[in-house]
Structure formats: structure tokens, C-alpha cells
Amino acid sequence: ASALNFIGNVEAAAVYSGMADVIVCDGFTGNVALKVSEALVDTVEGIEASEVVWARNGFFYAFTPTDAPHATRWSRRSIRFHRLGDEQSKDREAIAASNDKDASSGMNPLALTDDGGTLLVRTFGNWSRRAYAVVDLRSAAWSARPLVAPTGDVWGACVLGRSIFASARRADSTFDIVRVRDAGKPAELIGHEDGR
User: Strands, DSSP E only, in 14-129?
Assistant: First the structure.
């Protein structure tokens, strides 16, 4: 049996979604996708080193001010939404900059739930800690709140379908798995891994 998980045909939006690690296409189509991706980075100012999360009519990205000194560039990043066809000056902020001087890897959008209602964002990262937030895109205010596990620090998070799953490290170095089904409600404990 092969370890390869063939998922079949994917739509264009899946190219940037993380749904597949490898996408096979003809040379012309692949070149067009590559050139459009390169142009996106050149067109949207401040998108340097950002993850891009596609939505129906645009994309979320981490904006780094081009005038930010290198020492503070990660702490000055914010998460923005760019609507396709609009000028960048109309981009909407989803999460403001943290201005945390200890950030060594800035915030990035990570994934959108299948229903488009919740955005998962890494809001902070350095060698010793990381933090995540969920943004409720169904509310007009796009309210964001920290992703907090009831039993420990969140070490990693991902989106599967309409839910966000996270691993939370307990004080005894074991892990719990939590799930967020609704951005407006707390994470619920769904499993425990004791390392055996």
C-alpha cells in the first residue's frame, strides 16, 4: 500500500488552501499559476513572507509595513483582507499589529474553515512560545479572540472542514486535543494523548 493520499481533481482555490501537498497539471496551466502567484507578491505591498489564505472574493494576508525597521518588522504585522479588483488602500484589517518586541516570526493567516465563517491566525511566534486566534467572519466587526485551550498552552492548530483543531500541552508534557466549532464559543476538549 502506498503512503500517497490521492484526492483527485481540485478546484483553483485549493491551490493555496493546503488541501494538497502536490498538484499535477500540464505545463501551460502550471506556468500560469506560478506567474500569477509571483505577480501577487509584487502587486500587493507589504505581503513579503506572508501566508495567503484565499476566500471567495479575495484573500487574507499578513501586512508588513515597508518602512518598518528590521528589528521591529514582525511585531508590526497585521492581518488584512484584500478584495480582488479593489485598490490595496481599501483592504480591511482583521487583526491589528501586536507590537510585541519579542516576536521573531510574525502573525500569519493559516486557514479558513470550509464554510468561510472562521479564520485561523497565528498571532505570535518565537522559539519558546506561539499563540493563535480565531476570527469570526460572520460578525460585521470580524471579532477576533485568542485560541485558548482549557488545559494548557496551544502548541499547534489546523482547520479541518468547519472546525479548528488544536493541540494543547499540559504541565506534565502530555497533550490534549481541542476543537472549536464556533468562533464565538470556547474550545472543547475532545481527546488526550499521554505519549505512550
Answer: 52-55, 58-63, 78-83, 92-95, 108-112, 118-125
Spatial distance between the Cα atoms of 103 and 101, rounded to a whole number of angstroms:
6
C-alpha cell at 41: 507578491
Helix then strand then coil, % of the chain, to nearest 5: 15, 35, 50
pLDDT per residue over 26-68, tens digit each?
888 888 887 777 676 666 777 766 788 888 888 999 888 888 7
Q: Which of 61, 82, 71, 148 is nearest to 104 (CA)?
A: 71
Please enumerate in sequence order all residues whose Cβ is within 8 A of that of 160, keeping only pairs 6 or more positions apart, or say none.
none
**Which contacts of 40-45 are long-range, i.e. CB under 8 A and separated by 24 or more positions?**
44/82, 44/88, 45/88
**144-146/188-193 β-pairing:** unpaired
* Cα distances (Å, whole numbers) of residue 4 to 1, 19, 172: 9, 14, 35
Question: Do the strands 118-125 and 108-112 form a parallel or antiparallel pair, or are they unpaired?
Answer: antiparallel
Task: Report yes or no on whether pTM surpasses 0.90.
Answer: no
Using alpha carbons, select from 155, 160, 152, 196 the residue that is nearest to residue 180: 160
